[in-house]
Design a protein that fits this description.
CATH class: Mainly Beta
Number of domains: 1
Radius of gyration: 18 Å
Number of helices: 2
Shape: globular
Distance between the termini: 24 Å
Number of strands: 22
Length: 305
């Protein structure tokens, strides 16, 4: 067996309101190098971003871009101090869920799976191209990531994994959008599957003590993991996927192997909806306000070796 347990969890759990993030790693040689209950920096956002739903970072690493799930606007934010730089309309009002830079242009995805390519955003020459394929409301797309290695975007579905009577029970799908052909790939690029999670959790008996994780991934219940954001780590190429439902983060290798599961603290992450990295591997997570101030957190990449 190549699997060993590198399980780390506080032996006595504090009350829910004070609970820290707790992580599970059972893969030999893998380290999760973030402390997601202890942000290294926090930016409070204006009220107009109370329902922030997507987050990306410019290629030069200086500017965060965000969308919220009601208005067709792009919000540009200084990644060092959290100040709003500019905001621009790009389309009509709608349920926009993910945003990503590709070069100097920006892509936005709606929950229906419709993609908006915003060329030269915020300038007098701004243009928008719209792409609509087979994904729809039933899929409820929420996550968007730029997969530079394969020149495509990744669209993570919160709800149905299939389409046109193609069923993928107890799975959540991530589809690829080919940036050269401007076409959606019909076969999912990745799945997050309940049986894969169950296999992962069965690797060591100590894992079963993490009651909230085990309850959430109960094989007798519906598969509750519902991707709300996705990003690709710039140094490892691993996929990071958050589920606002259940407050979970899952790390997955390119071949689909699960590397890590993190139960997020509700106190810190009331509704994690956006996710991106800078070139050094520092992680940004945005949270909706939920009646409080919406925030963006930065978590520094802290490898132990």
């Amino acid at each position: 067996m190549i699997w060993i347990l590198l399980f780390h969890l506080l032996s006595c759990q504090p009350p829910e309101s004070e609970q820290q993030s707790s992580g599970i790693t059972v893969v030999e040689g893998y380290e999760f190098n973030y402390q997601l209950a202890e942000p290294d920096q926090e930016f409070e956002l204006p009220d107009e971003l109370e329902e922030i739903s997507g987050l990306g970072l410019s290629p030069d690493g200086n500017t965060l871009v965000a969308v919220q799930d009601e208005d067709g606007e792009l919000f540009f934010i200084n990644r060092y101090n959290g100040e709003m730089i500019a905001e621009f309309d790009f389309w009509d009002d709608g349920d926009y869920e993910g945003v990503e830079f590709v070069g100097e242009n920006v892509y936005v995805v709606k929950s229906t799976g419709t993609l908006y390519e915003v060329l030269r955003p915020g300038t007098d020459e701004q243009e928008v191209n719209k792409y609509n394929y087979f994904l729809n409301d039933d899929n409820d797309v929420e996550g968007l990531a730029y997969d530079a290695a394969n020149n495509r975007l990744l669209l993570a579905c919160k709800a149905d994994a299939g389409y046109d009577d193609k069923g993928f029970p107890r799975k959540k799908a991530i589809y690829g959008f080919d940036l050269s052909k401007k076409e959606m790939e019909e076969k999912p690029a990745y799945f997050v599957a309940l049986d894969s999670v169950q296999h992962y959790l069965q690797q060591g008996p100590a894992i079963r003590k993490v009651e909230k994780v085990m309850e959430f991934f109960n094989p007798e219940e519906e598969f509750g993991f519902s991707p709300s954001a996705i990003a690709i780590h710039p140094l490892t190429g691993n996929l990071y996927i958050t589920s606002s439902v259940g407050k979970m983060l899952l790390v997955m290798r390119r071949d689909g192997q699960i590397l890590h599961i993190e139960k997020l603290s509700k106190r810190v992450h009331p509704q994690p909806e956006g996710l991106c990295f800078d070139a050094q591997g520092n992680l940004f997570i945005s949270n909706e306000g939920k009646g409080m101030d919406p925030v963006i957190y930065r978590f520094n990449y802290k490898p132990r070796h």
